[in-house]
């Protein structure tokens, strides 16, 4: 069966007004926690999940490995990893979703063996695995990369001191989910500090792991001999919530996004202010007010709490309609600025040179047919469509479905003229 053709249709809108709730962080936190459930026999549950395409792929992958995956409530998946498990992640699934690599650590820790297809590059850059590999080797794992697969095995995992060259989210997750069952202490230095790392650690601790320092640059893990199943609900999706904050900035209005905090937005909360918005913490969320054209500023992406690379496309869209010129530097992924060519089709003036983009604000954008290159770039083009004359049709919008359970519905609830179609 061929894949459905998904499109977003956006028209001039605004102001956006009202309150929306951020979904649970399904793609970047939930999927990884489901993989971590492989660490022990028995049934663990992960709650506050929302139906996004990547969740289906993770379900298929865990089933291919031999786990039983079932919905036990509207937003809760149970993973029964009693086994027997086949410690292999096939190419067909890994190539569809990079988070498939998150089964590597749990399978190694539990079985001493794992064979995982190499994910390869994708639309946002080359995305290497060297930091995962070097950290695992420090714990005694033997790895061979051949025929497009990582073959990893270990007799006895031993704790190690690992200093990451770069605070990689994926490498921190792999090493954390391996170290929990290693013998002795593992210290991960220069670890990623993203809130989803702390959330993964909270799930592991609920399973009986001994983890300290998650959310700081130094994570210490004291290995235990076995873990037990646990129940955990994932945190609110700060990236989805942040997307809605940027929507309010770009379109104008008064929007409260419940279920996230300004702290989870990191430097992006300050950048929203630099771009002209009034940003306030509320009891249960973040309120954004904007009644003018965005102001220009410079943005550089950095690991958390720096300005998230996932928000970069939204900042480019805001600057594309701002009063003045801003410079955007993408420091995390090597090809994430490629989407700006699509934005230029809408009349934006973005000139890229390697990791830098010079964005000259234009008074108006014009609706056009454009293409989503990745999940966040796709969402950014939808936001641009809300301030462009005429209709914008975002093609290849299945990318948006990978991470957003209902982007069109949430924007429409705030008054945006947007619809998602699937044929
Ligand atoms: N890197 C290496 N070697 C490694 C690992 C990473 O050189 O061994 C490089 C990557 O090539 C990249 C940079 O380090 O240039 C950052 O990679 P990181 O490992 O931190 O990111 P990730 O785990 O691949 C996750 C999210 C991304 C998010 C980044 C940064 C998931 C599934 N993906 O990717 O989310 O942008 O962390 O916060 O959680 C998105 O949601 O749209 C998205 C791309």
Annotate the secondary structure layout.
Layout lengths: L5 E6 L4 E6 L4 H11 L6 E5 L5 H13 L2 E6 L2 E5 L7 E2 L1 H4 L9 H8 L1 E5 L12 H9 L3 E5 L2 E5 L7 E3 L5 H11 L5 E5 L5 H12 L3 E3 L5 E5 L8 E3 L4 H14 L1 E6 L3 H4 L1 H8 L3 E4 L3 E6 L8 E2 L11 H9 L4 E5 L10 H5 L4 E5 L2 E5 L4 E2 L2 E3 L3 H11 L2 E2 L2 E4 L2 H4 L5 H7 L3 E6 L1
Parallel strand pairs: 2-15, 3-14, 6-7, 10-11, 18-19, 22-24, 23-25
Antiparallel strand pairs: 1-25, 1-26, 3-5, 4-5, 7-9, 8-9, 11-13, 12-13, 15-17, 16-17, 19-21, 20-21
Helix pairs in contact: 1-2, 1-7, 4-6, 5-6, 6-7, 8-11, 8-13, 11-13
The site of uridine-diphosphate-2(N-acetylglucosaminyl) butyric acid has 28 residues, from helix 1, helix 5, helix 6 and helix 13.
Low-confidence stretches: none
**Biggest sheet record:** 4 strands, mixed
Put simply, the count of helices is 15
Count of distinct structural domains: 2
**Euclidean distance between termini CA atoms:** 13 Å
Oligomer: single chain
Radius of gyration: 21 Å
């Amino acid at each position: 069966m061929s894949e459905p053709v998904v499109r977003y249709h956006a028209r001039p809108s605004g102001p956006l007004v009202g309150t929306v709730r951020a979904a649970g962080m399904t793609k970047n936190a939930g999927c990884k926690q489901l993989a971590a459930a492989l660490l022990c026999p028995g049934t663990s549950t992960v709650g506050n999940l929302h139906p996004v395409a990547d969740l289906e792929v993770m379900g298929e992958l865990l089933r291919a490995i031999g786990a039983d995956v079932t919905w036990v409530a509207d937003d809760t998946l149970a993973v029964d990893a009693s086994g027997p498990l086949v410690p292999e992640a096939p190419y067909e699934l890994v190539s569809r979703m990079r988070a498939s690599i998150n089964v590597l650590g749990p399978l190694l820790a539990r079985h001493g063996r794992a064979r995982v297809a190499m994910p390869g590059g994708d639309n946002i850059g080359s995305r290497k695995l060297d930091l995962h590999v070097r950290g695992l080797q420090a714990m005694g794992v033997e790895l061979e990369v051949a025929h497009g697969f990582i073959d990893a095995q270990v007799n006895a995992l031993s704790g190690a001191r690992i200093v990451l060259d770069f605070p990689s989210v994926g490498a921190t997750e792999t090493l954390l989910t391996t170290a929990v069952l290693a013998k002795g202490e593992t210290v991960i230095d220069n670890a990623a500090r993203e809130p989803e790392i702390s959330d993964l650690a909270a799930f592991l601790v609920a399973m009986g792991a001994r983890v300290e320092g998650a959310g700081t640059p130094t994570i210490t893990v004291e290995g235990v001999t076995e873990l037990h199943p646990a129940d955990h609900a994932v945190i609110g999706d700060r990236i989805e919530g942040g997307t809605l904050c940027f929507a309010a900035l770009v379109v104008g209005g008064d929007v409260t996004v419940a279920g996230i905090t300004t702290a989870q937005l990191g430097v992006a909360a300050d950048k929203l202010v630099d771009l002209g918005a009034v940003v306030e913490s509320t009891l249960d969320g973040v309120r954004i007010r904007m009644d003018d054209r965005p102001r220009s500023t410079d943005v550089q992406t950095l690991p958390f709490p720096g300005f998230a690379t996932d928000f970069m496309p939204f900042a480019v869209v805001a600057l594309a309609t701002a009063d003045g010129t801003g410079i955007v530097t993408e420091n995390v992924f090597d090809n994430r600025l490629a989407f700006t060519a699509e934005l230029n089709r809408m009349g934006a003036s973005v000139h890229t040179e390697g990791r830098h983009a010079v964005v000259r604000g234009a008074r108006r954008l014009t609706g056009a047919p454009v293409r989503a290159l990745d999940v966040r770039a796709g969402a950014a083009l939808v936001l641009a469509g809300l301030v462009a004359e005429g209709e914008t049709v975002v093609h290849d919008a299945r990318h948006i479905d990978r991470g957003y359970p209902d982007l069109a519905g949430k924007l429409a609830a705030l008054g945006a003229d947007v619809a998602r179609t699937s044929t």
